[in-house]
């Protein structure tokens, strides 16, 4: 698989970092981490120093070449493997999980999930078809695994 050009890779780094800031919310809070909070926490580990300004530069794409140690430290802070920042394939897998995590914060989504556990498989598939028709995904068919 060919490597993306530098512009695409750098854009992905900023996008991926911003996605982590948006989705990984500290326990007990509704607002995301700030650049100073992340910089402090990463730097407190001792091996890597990251300033809030450098973090902001990575997030807005004006800086785009962090060291491997910085990538590893940021990945550890956000609870993702370093490959999230380095591999499009790994990032796609993790982005799907992040999307589910973000959706699970919504009270309506949690209620739908809770209620669906009491339904039979045919009833869940019927609900899924209704949801797909509402979102314009009717042609895709059920995406539920066989159980």
List keywords for this structure.
147 residues; mainly alpha; 434 Repressor (Amino-terminal Domain); 2 domains; 8 helices; disordered N terminus; Cro/C1-type_HTH; Lambda_DNA-bd_dom_sf
Provide a quick synopsis of the model.
GO terms for molecular function: DNA binding. The chain is mostly helical.
Question: Could you explain how this protein is built, in words?
Answer:
InterPro entries: Cro/C1-type_HTH (IPR001387), Lambda_DNA-bd_dom_sf (IPR010982). This is HTH cro/C1-type domain-containing protein. Residues 50-85 form the HTH cro/C1-type domain. This protein is mainly alpha-helical. Helix content is 64%, strand content 0%. α2 packs across α3. The longest helix is centred in the first third of the chain and has 18 residues, at 6-23. The radius of gyration is 19 Å and the shape is elongated. The two termini are 34 Å apart. The relative contact order is 0.10. Mean pLDDT is 85; it is low at 1-11.
**Mass-distribution shape:** elongated
**CATH topology title of the largest domain:** 434 Repressor (Amino-terminal Domain)
Poorly predicted ranges (pLDDT <50, ≥5 residues)? Answer: 1-11
Task: Tell me which CATH architecture of the largest domain applies here.
Answer: Orthogonal Bundle
